[in-house]
Amino acid sequence: MTHAGESFGCSIDETILHTGQHYDEQMSSVFFRELAIRPPDINLEAGSGLHGVQTARMLEGIESELIRREPDVVVIYGDTNSTLAGALAAAKLLIPTAHVEAGLRSFERAMPEEINRLVADHTSDLLLAPTDVAMKNLADENLTERARLVGDVMLDATVLYGKAAQGSDQLVDKLGLGSESFAVATIHRPANTGPGVLAVLLVTLNEVARSLIPVVFPVHPRTRAVISEHLGDWRPDPRLHMTEPLSYTEMLQLLGKANVVLTDSGGLQKEAFFSGARCITLREETEWTETVELGGNVLVGNEPARIKAAVAEALGAQTFQGSDEHCEGLEGYGGGKAADRIVEALINEFLVQGD
């Protein structure tokens, strides 16, 4: 247990429940260490598997813990299967639930995350939205009364940890990049990791690295498995630097120095935007439409010609970091004050009445 809320005049007992959906060392434990978060009070060790199997394991474990601990409120975050399981378990036990990062919509039902978001928002009692666009999405679904605009906690984290991370050249030097310009790429979504599509994307990354700009490519475990099992003959160009998954601060270090980011990750789109790196999203849609509207992000899907053209255009464009659009976007994401607003909303909605 930890205590929070002192600055708001009360003490809150917190219990951290880790479902174990992400269990790889570089995708889980390292974040607790680097961000100085204490180990979870509970780890369900749900592991991977089909969506139904994985979610069922988590749902069973979360339900048991909620019955045992009887919390006043359950706080869920994001759009993972863990989010879905937490939302369902709390709703069935009639425990008030707050959803952080509520209101995101890609309007692409083929994405599992879209289903998770919809269920979480429609079963939660308090919807903590990061942006005006998210608030509008909730209004369109008649959820305004439950919604509060608080900003984005990922910006809080970038502000808190970014300066220290960007002050270090350790990883850049290790990769042999020195003062050279470079791009960062990540690929992990199922739509991009089928063997056929991934093969095309890997060839495209090689071409970008060889003819346009060196690329640092932290390889997600799912992506590495597909390469190993189906694309064993493929070899990276010498200017395509493949690495293991990077820790949070290592990625912030790269983003602070990268010229451009290529990714299909929702979170990395935002982190690139926050850091001022131009982003090229390997999808046809995004939950973070603000990043596109403000000129920091472009959607290209997985077509090679569009990807290479977007990289060339980004490299020829003016620096995005510090531009009027970049500054406007940071304010639109809460200016780094989201966490305080979330704590205040939780206290006002659920905890003051119980004192």
Biggest sheet, strands in spatial order? 11-10-9-12-13-14
Ends apart, CA distance between termini: 19 Å
Secondary structure class reads alpha/beta
Number of DSSP E strands: 14
Radius of gyration: 20 Å
Shape, principal axes of CA atoms: globular
Number of domain modules:
2
CATH homologous superfamily of the largest domain? Glycogen Phosphorylase B
Write a concise synopsis of the structure shown.
Helix content is 47%, strand content 14%. It is of the alpha/beta class and 355 residues long. The two termini are 19 Å apart.
Description:
By secondary structure, the protein is an alpha/beta fold. It folds into two domains: 2-151 and 337-351, 3-Layer(aba) Sandwich (Rossmann fold), CATH 3.40.50; 158-332, Rossmann fold (3-Layer(aba) Sandwich). The protein is built from 16 helices and 14 strands. The chain has a six-stranded parallel beta sheet with strand order 11-10-9-12-13-14, with helices on both faces. A four-stranded parallel beta sheet has the order 5-6-7-8, sandwiched between helices. It has a two-stranded antiparallel ribbon with strand order 1-2. The longest helix has 19 residues, at 51-69. The radius of gyration is 20 Å and the shape is globular. The two termini are 19 Å apart. The model has no long low-confidence stretch (mean pLDDT 91).
